[in-house]
Request: fold
Amino acid sequence: MGIVCFEGDPPYELLVTKNGKATAAGGIVRLILPVSAPGPDPQERKIELLLRFGHASRLSAALRGAANDAQKNAQGDD
Reply:
């Protein structure tokens, strides 16, 4: 696997992702997120996360809740 390098102090560049893919392999969930950082020469890279099924389940619930909140916030901005 490649090396992820964060340079400087937080906050770091915003990474943009779309169309992530998750697959199950035994008791592990493999999550692949294609990401690109804005800039003069943006290049897409894939970040792969391997999660135990329990962690993946909790992350799914947390993402679902945050997505619902974000949707409500976006509707309030109209």
About this structure: The helical segments are 53-76. The chain is about 30% helix and 30% strand.
